[in-house]
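Dear colleague,

As promised, here are the two records you asked about, laid out in our usual form so they can be pasted straight into your sheet.

NAME FIELD: protein one
SEQUENCE, THEN STRUCTURE:
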Amino acid sequence: MPHSTDCRGRHPSMTGTPRSDPPEDKAAIRAAALARRDALAADHHAHAARALADHAGGIGWHPGNIVSGFWPIRSEIDPRPLMEALAARGAIIALPAVIDRQTIVFRRHDKAVPLVPGGFGTMAPGPDAKPLDPDLMLIPLSAFDDGGNRIGYGAGHYDRAIARLVAKGRTPRLVGLAFECQRVNRVPAEPHDVPLHTVLTENGLQALPAQR
C-alpha cells in the first residue's frame, strides 16, 4: 500500500508534525519550507500527484462549478491529475495567467487548445480564452499552518485575486495544495490575510479551523 514520507524519509502521521521555524520571519519560513520541498524524491512527487486526485470528490465543489487550478513549476506538488479528475466529474477548469506584476486572471482551460507561457515559468490559456471567476481555487503555496494560514511566493497575486473576487460579491472556496513537509508551526498572519478552507496534501485533506 502506498505510504507518505516527509522530505527526510520519515513516515509522518496522517496529520503531520509541524516544523520548528522562526515564528515571525516569513522569508525564513518560506525558504526553509521550499528547501524541504525541493529535497523530495521524484517517486514521492508521483505518489503525491496521484494521492491528490483520489480526493477530487471531497474538496467541496459541485458539477458545473468553476475550479481554478495551476500549472506546476519548480518542485510544486503536481495538481494536473486532480484537475483531470475534477473535469471528468463535471468541473469547469480555469488556469491563472499573469497579466502584470500586480494581476493574475483566470482563463478557461480547454485541453484541445495549447497552453502558452503564463508568467513565472508556468503555462496558461492564451488571451483568447474566456476569463472566469472561480467558485473554488486550488492555491499553490510555500508553507501553511494548522490554522489555514499560508505563505505564498511573495508577489501577492493570489491575495489580490481573492480580494477582487470578494469585492465582486463572490466567496470562493480556498484549497491549498502542498506537500506535508511544507506544514509549519505558525504562519505570522496579518489582518487582511484570508485563511484557507482546507489544505490537501499527499496525506489527504487537512482538518483546519477555517473549514466551512
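NAME FIELD: protein two
SEQUENCE, THEN STRUCTURE:
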Amino acid sequence: MAYFPFFMDIEGKNCLIVGGGKVALRKAEKLLPYGPVIHLVSPVFAEEFYAMPALRLNVGEFQPDMLDNMSFVIAATGNSSLNHQISALCRARNIPVNVVDDKDACSFIFPALVKRGALSVGISTGGASPSAAIYLKERINALLPDRLDEILSFLDAARAPIKAAFPLEEDRSAAFKELFLLCMEQNAPLTADSFRAFLAERGQGQNG
C-alpha cells in the first residue's frame, strides 16, 4: 500500500485511543501539540496519564458506541483480537484507524515526526523499516536551525505587510523568498527595525 502524506487540521477533533499503556501514551503525546480532543479507554492506565489533564480518561472496557463522533481512532491495547475488532468497526463506519504494530489493519499510519513550531515533517517508510524512519528523523532534526520556530512565527506575521507592500504576485514571491533566506542566514527573525528597512528598500527598488 502507498500512503499519501495528508496534513490535516485536527484541532478540536475527537480522537479515541483504546489502550492505557506506554504505546498509547506515546501516541497521545505526539497528538497533543496539534490540539485534538483525546479520549482514552482502558481498564488500567499507566500513572503518566494522570499527569496530563488534557486527556479524557475512561476507565473501563471498549464499547462500539464509543466510536460515535470520533474523527479518528487508535487501537493500542496489546490485544490483537480486540485491535482487529476495533479496526473492522472503524472501517465499516469510514473512520480512519491506526492499529499499533499492524499496518495491514491500519487505514492510516503514524510517521516519525519532526516538529518545530509551525513546521511538521512526517517521515514514513510505509512500515518497511521504522528504524530507517527514526534515523532520517534524527538527521533532519539535526539539520534544522535552533530558532526555526521563531523564524516561522515571524514569517507568518510578515505575510500581511509583505502582501500590502508588493501587490504583484511575482514581486511578493521574491520578497517572501529573500526574507526567508535572510532569516536563515542569521538564524533568527529580523528585528522590527530591520523588517521596516527591508520593506522600505524593496519598495523603493520596486517603484524606482
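A couple of things worth noting about protein two: Residues 111-144 form a domain with the Double Stranded RNA Binding Domain fold (CATH 3.30.160). The CA atoms of residues 76 and 101 lie 9 Å apart.

Best,
R.
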